[in-house]
Amino acid sequence: MLKAALHNLGCKVNAYETEVMEQLLIENGYEIVDFADKADVYVINTCSVTNIADRKSRQMIHQAARRNPDAIIVAAGCYVQTSKEEAANDPDIDIIIGNNEKNRIVELLREFEEKRKNESDSKNAGITGLHDLMHEVTYEQMLLKKSMEHTRAFIKVQDGCNQFCTYCIIPYARGRVRSRTIEDVIEEVRLLVKSGVKEVVLTGIHVSSYGVDTGSSLIELIEAISEVDGIERIRLSSLEPRVITDEFVDRLSKIDMICPHFHLSLQSGSDSVLKRMNRKYDTAEYEKCCERLRAAFTHPAITTDIICGFPGETDAEFSETIEFVKRIKFFETHLFKYSKRKGTVAAGMPGQITEAVKAERSHRLSEIQSEYKKEFMSYYIGREEEILVEDTEVIDGETYYVGLNKEYVRFLIPESKYTGTVNTFVIVTAHTFLNPDSLCT
User: Which fold has domain 152-378?
Assistant: First the structure.
């Protein structure tokens, strides 16, 4: 039996696609082994969101080639899509698989093996599954039948992005928006629920654009999923403010299994910076979205992303971001120091910020945000909460069962207090913080 090892870099969409490729390999007779082991086939699902991600992708490709020089090295995803020529000239890569071609992995492996038999020099037998995505209109059909996480499954509902933010390479790596049909998503949800999954997370490259190419809408998709027998929770990944309309929030609030945990991408609390980023909203619109969610749900978790040190960001503009964060009081803020990405508009903008300033701004925001996270989590102390137990973890020598409520707050149950199993719902009451990220029952 041939052995295959897979390594994923980057986002949840990549993780989903890696799971599907692994599933396809298993169904076609491959034994899956750890990436650190010797394998006959190595699949690296690459990332290209930053120059550093490109470098990490190349490192994993070369690491696999060193581990077994006779192995077939498959490089898939965003790095090979945006760096076609570089990937084509890399002697360690045998098969290149672009985005929208990953469901062909078994076919391409067979094609490579056949070609290698007829080539005197096997290194000239490379296979490429790659085409221009900027004019692609077809969604790549994939079907995940069982999630490796068992409790929670990520479901890819769309691909591509039409936004073209000035700092982002992803539209060039993923192409324009392509949405999956509601019927296809429902089929996957049913299979995952049958396999034991209790919670699904809808993900994509730009989830808020779901349906713009097909005439359907994100809320229609969510409502359809809520009708699937056995589904317990529906969680949404990153959303854009423009989708948080009065109608969307009203219909969403009527779905019992929806998780009131909303990740709204912000990137900056300064309108002038948002304009340079080519974001399609301003801070007033963003704040209104937060108000809608807080009016419709009892205690919704609102999380966000912020880029520190975008080109030209002045002290005054950064201060605007600080004041905005103080006003909104996010549950969590994912902070990123701006990283120049070759091929984007922002990479050539004047006023590039030094690494020292980026780090200082990120640190200041982190300190402010930590207080709001603690404040948000404190709400649950002394209250009964339903959590989904997902795993066990050893902390300071003691074993705890780990679970999350609908708002994605982490609860820990000492092993001595719990006689149940993972993938089970249980009612708990937290009494204290075990650490800044966890409440303890």
Answer: pyruvate-formate lyase- activating enzyme (3.80.30)
